[in-house]
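Moderator note: this is an archived Q&A kept for reference. The question asked for a predicted structure of one protein chain; the sequence and the answer are reproduced below.
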Amino acid sequence: MIDLAHLKNSNAAGVGLYRTEIPFMGRSKFPGVDEQTRLYNQVLDNANGKPVVFCTLDIGGDKVLPYCNIENEDNPSMGWRAIRVALDRPASLRRQLRAMIRAAAGRELYIMFPMVAEVPEFVQARAFVDIELTRGKERGAVVPKQVCVGVMLEVPSLAFQLNALCPLVDFISVGSNDLCQFLFASDRGNPRLADRFDILSPIILTVLKNIVTDCDKANVPLNLCGEMVGRLLEAMALIGLGFKWLSMAGSSIGRVKEMVLGMDMSEVQHAF
C-alpha cells in the first residue's frame, strides 16, 4: 500500500507483483474474507484502472506467519511453502480467491500462483478459481469482467513443462530471484554466496531465452520480476532476450525507462 501511493509518479504501467502475504504478516490472526476484500478493493482503487497482479499467499521459507503452524525445516526455501501450503489447506486459498473476486467486481482481475513445480499443481489451483467464480455467480454477486490466471515460474522444473503449461495459463511471470538460486543451489540470502555465480551467465541466459521462445511460440504473455530487472545492464540483456514486460521496484523504473528509450533495440537483440 505504501508503494501504491507512488504508482502514478513512477510512470509504471501497473503492478506486476502484489505480495498478498505482507498484510498477513502484520496481523495476529488469519484475516477473514471481508477484511481481505476491503484490502484488495483498496489496492485496485489506488491502482486507478492500471492492472494489478495479485500473487496468492506465499508463506513459508523466510515468510512465517505467527498464527500459522509451519514446522522448522532444514531447507525452508524448498520446503512446505507458497502453493504447497495453499493446496494442502484449500479452505484458506479459497477464502483468498473469494475475496479477490469480490474486490474486483466489474473490473479486471489478475491472479498468479507462486512456487509451482508441476503442471498438475497449477491445474488444481486454477480449478479453485473457477469454483469461486461459479459460487459468486450463483449467489448473484457481481464478478470481475475478466479473470486472468497465471503462474510464477521460479522452480526450474516448470521451465521444462512449458509445452503442457502454456495452453492452460493466461500469462507467465518469471521470478528471477528464486529461479537463479535454485538453478545454482545457492542461497541468495547467504552473504558468503552472493558472488558465487554471475546473474548474466550463459546458463541463466540460455534458460531465460528458452522460456521466451516457448512462450512466444504459444502466444503467452511473459514478464520477469526480480532484483536483476532493476539493474541497467541486466534489464538491457532481458530486453535483448525478448522480454517485453519487466516488473521492478518503483524506485528503479525511472532509470530503466531512460535506458530503454536511449538504446538501439536492433543492436541489443542482435547480441542475443
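Archived answer notes: DSSP finds 13 helices and seven strands in the chain.
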